[in-house]
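S.,

Sequence below, as promised.
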Amino acid sequence: MELDLMEKQLKAVADANRLRILACLKKGEVCVCDFTDFLNISQPAVSQHLRKLKEAGIITERKVGTWKHYRIQENQTSLMRNILASINEDSTCGCKINTECVEG
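The prediction came back faster than expected:
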């Protein structure tokens, strides 16, 4: 594995909030609007955590209307597969079906 990628991925997961995001995403795709309540932090802080995980190639996003939905990237390095396997899924997190983040 490329050392630069390994360093970026290890730095990305070396934060409790980012680990909680990954635990949440183990259930599946989640709208960005649901992370602020789940993490109890501001939207800009959530965006910074998501950006770091995305830049490390750990998560991916798709846009739905004005909202972004995030999920764990399917193709992971062996390092990330092992780390993700050791994170327990958080069942208290997930998309809340509401008009704020769901657009047709």
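The first strand starts at residue 30 and ends at 31.

Coffee later?
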